[in-house]
Structures are given as C-alpha cells and as structure tokens.
Specification:
With 190 residues, the chain is an all-alpha fold. The chain folds into two domains: 7-53, Homeodomain-like (Arc Repressor Mutant, subunit A, Orthogonal Bundle); 63-188, Tetracycline Repressor, domain 2. It is 70% helix and 0% strand. The longest helix is centred in the C-terminal third of the chain and has 27 residues, at 114-140.
C-alpha cells in the first residue's frame, strides 16, 4: 500500500515557518518537523528550499483575499478599505509579529536571490494592479479625483501598507495601521 503524500502538510508548514521565522532562520528540518514528516519527504515534493518558498508565496497570495476588491454591489473605495481592514485584523491576531510574507521576503532575501526577488516583485505588481483597478473604478464612479494616477497611487498605497506593517511589528501596536487608514482614506483618497 502506498504512503499518503505529505506535500500539503509540508507546503503549509513551509508557509507558516517562513512567515513566522523568515527565510534564513527556517531550515528544512524546521519545515518537516512542523509538518510531522521525515526530512526526505520534503525533497520528494520540493527540489529546494527556494522552491518551497515560491510555493509559500503563492499560498500566501491566495490568502490575501483579493476577492474583497471585486465584491459586486459595493462602492470601490469601500471594497479597498475592507481589503485592508481584513489584512489589519489578520496582523493584529498574530500580535503584530508576522507582517506580510511578501514584504518580509523582499526585505530579507531580494538582494541575495534573483528567483525570490522576481517572485516578490510579481506579487507586488499583481497586488498594485488590483488596487489600481479599484481606484480606476472609483474614478469612473466619480468618487475619486479623475486627475489622480491610479497606478501610481496604488503603488503608494501598497508601499504605505508595507511600511505600516513594519512599524506595527516594531511597536507591537495598531497605531501605524490606524495612521495608514486615516491618511489613505481620509487624505489621499478623499
């Protein structure tokens, strides 16, 4: 009788370990121990640690709830706020200890690994494009200044979010996130 695949448990453990510990502090043994799998099982499913972090990025991106940005029947800026409120709640639940995996990997690994840097960049590009689409919809609805460059503004909002997460981690408080919401939704997008 064939053994059950441990791929799902290993992939989820890799995501959890990379998100909580970082790339360099996470070893294959950490991942397999968290998955309850022998070390050899890791290499049955992932040829390298680098490949497992790419899978982790994909899984993390799927959990960012981009569907909130496209919820029918809600005004665009309400959807944008709801998206970031969801992410803010997820950050608070961890005691402000994890931040964003995409941003974390960008800060930790991007200068040293071209494959991970490119994956991080693609993730940010996709996220900024989704935000930019919502901003364009708000402009079409007359809820946002038509002269605002939606793509550039989306990049700014995403950068402000990532910076706010870093400060929230350092302070172990929601103060930076509160400032993000005030400045983005009451000043920039007013």
């Amino acid at each position: 009788m064939a053994r059950a695949s441990k791929r799902e448990q290993i992939a989820q453990a890799a995501l959890d370990q990379f998100h909580s510990r970082g790339f360099h502090a996470t070893g294959i043994n950490d991942i397999t121990a968290a998955a309850g799998a022998p070390k050899g099982s890791f290499y049955n499913h992932f040829p390298s640690k680098e490949e497992s972090v790419l899978e982790a990025l994909s899984r993390y991106g799927a959990g960012l709830r981009f569907d909130i940005l496209t919820t029918p029947g809600q005004p665009p800026l309400d959807r944008l706020r709801a998206h970031f409120e969801f992410l803010g709640r997820a950050t608070a639940v961890t005691g402000f200890s994890r931040g964003c995996l995409v941003g974390n990997l960008g800060a930790e690994v991007a200068d040293h690994n071209e494959v991970i840097r490119a994956a991080v960049s693609r993730n940010f590009d996709g996220w900024a494009a989704a935000i930019g689409q919502v901003l364009a919809e708000a402009q079409e609805a007359g809820d946002l200044d038509a002269g605002l460059d939606s793509g550039e503004t989306a990049r700014f909002i995403l950068s402000a979010w990532e910076g706010s997460l870093i400060v929230a981690r350092a302070d172990k408080s929601s103060a930076a996130l509160d400032t993000f919401f005030r400045m983005v939704f009451e000043v920039v997008l007013r």
